[in-house]
Amino acid sequence: MKFSIIVPTYNEEGCIAKCLQSLEEQDFPRDDYEIIISDAASSDTTPDLARRAADTVVTTATRGIAHGRNFGAKHAQGKILVFVDADVTLDRRFLNELDEAFEEKDVVGVTGIGVPGDGKLFHRAVYRGTYLLVRLFNAFGKPYYPGICVAYEKNAFVRVGGFREEFGIVEDLDLSKRISALGTCRVKLTAIGRVSTRRIQKHALSTIFFHIYNDLRYLFTGRAAKVYPKVEELHSPFDLWRINKS
Description:
Mean pLDDT: 96
Structural class: alpha/beta
CATH topology: Spore Coat Polysaccharide Biosynthesis Protein SpsA, Chain A
Number of domains: 1
CATH architecture: Alpha-Beta Complex
């Protein structure tokens, strides 16, 4: 099997069906990829919706996106692990574009481009700006890839120990940095994932500055926040900061 698509979930009944539909409709041989839902004991209908389309649904009692991705990867049979967020829909040729990128010698990591699928102009500009920075850093040999729609060669992923679960944020940037020591990482501009801007539609400025602060903190100190709650769990612009201060 070529690809294992891993989607970490926790109470994602509002978006998981569309995500799974886009995974099922890939213009790629269906027997050459699998869909794995790694669920953190959701209390809504996410697991039921997932079982209708996913090849495998695994459940863990531990929350955290890094753990969810790692847990799903343990059940993967594919040579390449594709990590997709639950609020992302992939263009039909996404796997074909990844397949082409991984044909290049020594490639161990490939990120697609997360294109905002909703939101106002400001929200969309944030996501587009993020991927402009991804391309800029990559051009200078610094692969810092968001986990929105990204893929890694499984053997390389295992060799570096997967995502670091002590991070609640920047765990994705950290992995791409570490795995790049084993080979080449590429940005595939034609591999498109359409992502919800929901994370910055609520308490936008606080969330954006929280990301910037933790990105810089990681780059200069190797440290970052340990907790990153779902946006639905935040009641004020200061909750992200309070939770990580305690």
